[in-house]
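User: For my dataset I need records formatted as: sequence, then structure tokens, nothing else. Please produce one.
Assistant:
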Amino acid sequence: MKTDLCTLDWVAISAIATGLMAIATFVSLKELKRQWREQNKPRLMPLFVIYDRNSREGYLRIKNISGTAAFNVSVEISMNIETGSNSSYIQYNELVEELKKITFSLEPLGVKDFKFLEGGFPESKYEGHLDIQIRYNNTYCEEFMLHLSEFSALGDSITNENAIARRLDQLAQKMDGIESALRTICRR
């Protein structure tokens, strides 16, 4: 049986082709919508920060690193820690209680800080980690692990910065003395 192009039902073939194109378009649009949502969702991340280099207080910061606001943000933490003598510096129970009480919003590039460490950075290193779960926009839930050794690194960098600052102050005083001596010589 030979098929002649004139005897084909072109309307039926066109309908089938149109249906297949509609399905392909629907699948493409669904994927584009998923990609758009992923690209435009808030991105929250936790980190440790220190405000004032002299106060010796550390904070857990939740930062929105995206261009989209995050709403109904809640944070839960649990700690796997072996601090020994360092435990007096860490304000874990207070932080847990504070986090249980609040939900908050973060504007694009916004931050929210919670005091976590008070009293300084001891000589020994912090060991263990903090498990952090951040929920937001009634949709997203992300989990993070921050190692407490990051606080030790912050403390070390502050100690180094303070030593450098003291040395620079000493050099500035010596230079002031040299300047005074040169002015005296030039006046003679």
